[in-house]
Structure formats: structure tokens, C-alpha cells
Amino acid sequence: MEKIGELINHFRENKGMSQAELSEGILSKAQLSKFERDLTKISVDKFLALLERLHVTFTEFGNALAIQERLYEQAILEDITKAVINNNKDQAQLVKERAEQHLKKHHGKYNQLTLIMVKAMICYMEKGTLPKADTKVLADYLFSVDGWTHFELLLFGNTMSALSLVTVNQLARELAAQINEAWAIHQNFQLTINLLYNVVILNLSAKDLTTARLFLRVMKHSHVEDSMMAERYLIALADAFCDYCGEPTVEHENNVKRMIEIQKEIGSTNFFVAFNNQAKMFISETKISSNDSAGNV
């Protein structure tokens, strides 16, 4: 398990104990020093003896270890998101290097996936392509997990652009099958609706209205409460986009614009810009297609 030694060091220093006090009668001071720096491993018996001397239960230690890992993942995600939003390639590279160093020091599946997520977000910013080896690790992992937690939802959401549309749709079907379980955890349910919205947009961009409407139906039939205004808005906007792409009339175009204007009225500038760019893309593509058709008559 990762970071056990570091966490023992953390508890020891917080309790004001020296390495000599903690190690006496359990292991040598030198061995404890190496263990705290993750340079060596110790037996389970010695580890449990250290916990007993620290007056830390195994459950308390496990919780602290999980929190420590979540804090790292949260910090990495916040920093890479900020870099991508600001199109700051230098900052993004620094985050990537930090994730690479962390993986070298703490080998493990989740740290590997976190690094892949960082690389996928950088590829999205730079319009690049994620290496096939990373794409395979990512897809294999997501397909192997039966019940997605917050980690898998974030991973899928931030790497969606690096996967093929076929893979995205296959994973989205898995996600749709778990939507009732996600509903039990409010934060996960909100994230699931956001991910399904993005899947609808990806399929509309690929001119696959049938699949887009399939995932729209999943969103509509989910248990979105009246108080969940942001999620209800996404469903209505996805519906408006599907209507326009299915029948690009002036009425449907105006409906999309009215929906997006709501974001401007409530002061959500970033969302207004993002949704407006999506609308411009669909409207522009439709008009180009119409002109091409007219030219071929």
C-alpha cells in the first residue's frame, strides 16, 4: 500500500514522539527511518505494533490514508483544470511533471490513472492525441469497474475527449445503467447528468441524432428533482439542441438562443460563452450543409 511510511511519520510527529521512542522494542531506529521515507517495507506485526504505540486504530489510519490520497487527486485536478481553462501550457506541463513524480514515488493504479487524466486534458487543450497505451489502460479500467464512484465519474468526464466516440457511447451506456445508484449520492448524480449532457453533445457533433436522443431519454427519465435547477437546465438545453439538429427551423434556432440567454441573464458568463459556442457550432454546420445542398440542386 502507498504512503504508509509517510503517514506513520505524520502521526509520530503530531504526537511529539521521536523515532527512538516509537521504534524501541519493535524495530531499529534506522529501519523506522527508512520505512517513514518509503525506502523499505516492514511486517504486518511490526506495523500494527507501531499503530498501537501511537494509539491510532487501524480504521483511523485507513481513513487518514484515503483522505491523503483524495487531497492529492483534488489538488492535481484543480491545478490542471485551471491551466486548461487559461490555456496555460507551461503551467499544465508543471502539473504533468508533478503527477509523473508522484507516480514514480507512489506506484499504483489510481496514481497512474490520475496522470493519464492530466495528459488527456493537456491533449484536449493542445488538440493532440493521447498515446494508445494510455487510452487502453484508461478504457480497460473504466470497463472493468462494476459500480462507478466519484473517481470514475471524474476520470471519464475529463478524458472523454481522448476516447473514440464508440468507446464513449459504450461507457455512457454503462453509466446510464448505474444512474439510479448515482441518484442516491447527490454529488455523483449531478456529475452523471453533466456527463450524459456531454455525451449528447458529442453525438450531435458527429451527426448521430439517434444516439444523442437515446442518452437524452436517459437524462429525462432520471429522478431529477424540481430543486435541481442546473440539471433540469442541462436536460432542457440538450433537448433544444436535439430538436434543432433534427429539424433546423428558425423556431428551434430561436429556442436554443433563448435557452442560452438565460445563462447571461443570471450572470453565468463562463457557461453562457461555453453553451453559446456549442450553439454557434451546430448552427454554422447546419447552414453550411444547407448551402451545400442548395448548390447541388
TrEMBL record:
Signal peptide: none annotated. Coiled coil: none annotated. Residues 8-61 form the HTH cro/C1-type domain. Pfam families: HTH_3, Rgg_C. SUPFAM superfamilies: lambda repressor-like DNA-binding domains. One of its GO terms (molecular function) is DNA binding. InterPro entries: Cro/C1-type_HTH (IPR001387), HTH-type_regulator_Rgg (IPR053163), Lambda_DNA-bd_dom_sf (IPR010982), Transcription_activator_Rgg_C (IPR010057). It comes from the Bacteria. Gene3D superfamilies: 1.25.40.400, lambda repressor-like DNA-binding domains. This is XRE family transcriptional regulator. It comes from Lacticaseibacillus paracasei subsp. paracasei Lpp14.
